[in-house]
Amino acid sequence: MIDVVQLTKRYREVTAVDAVSFRCEPGTVTGFLGPNGAGKSTTMRMICGLTPPSAGEATVLGVPYARIANPGRHVGVLLDAAAMHPGRTGRETLGLAAQVLGVEQARAQQMLDRVGLPAKAARRRVGGYSLGMRQRLGIAQALIGDPSVLILDEPANGLDPEGIFWMRTLLREFADRGGTVLLSSHLLREVEAVADRFVVISGGRIAAQGTKDDLLAAPGGVLVRGLDAAALHAALAAAGLAARPEGAGAFTVDAPAEAVGRAAAAAGVVLTELRQAGGGGLEELFLSLTAGAPAVPASVPVPAEEALK
Q: Which CATH number is 2-74+147-216+282-307 given?
């Protein structure tokens, strides 16, 4: 469980995150979406106790992250795959994590196998890893404590299509076993494929949130197109169905698809298309919610004590 309540972060006169509230339930993957500069990473850093909020609070498993004893055994975090010691090998990185968390060293090898890093890669220094390999190692490090919550910021960066599919499967299985996942990503189609809920942030504020079915439900009735547009329009009018022209012989009708189909059939009109109107998916929703939203200026200074965390 992750609970975010009125979380706010101000840097002098700039408000990077403004009264953000949402909840991530066990057994679900929550897609945390927004354009660059929207406040996603700042919000996740506040949830993980790396950036102190100006107002509001965030709790993980019922308490602030900083109050969780041995947090890596309960919460797996990947905020920056590049923030690993470049001089250590992959195996050393996971071995040290296992030692710090108090889990068996055998767990390190298990996680290397789980994320698909072979023995040759595990013996290499992290400084020589590609971004995709670092992402796999970062996910292994997040999982090594066998947590019940995962907080991942752009974990698919650098992964090839096979790697993205692998990650999607891993996260879905994690949630299906009762885990809680908060996932930030700019790969909208991948998030749409795995997430149960979406939280969209724009300009530091929540623009929309809800289940996939609720947010992606297509409004506006159905779209219908026939071989004879004039005859189709007349058939719809005769059935008392209001139709709005959409161009190229198509109409949007605020009625169930069955009613539209029956009206056309009764008039002998041949249909070439009959489907739910809208339905552009997550990408269309994202663009409609974030278009024109201001971003936090890149020049906003981050206090040194936060940058070092």
A: 3.40.50.300
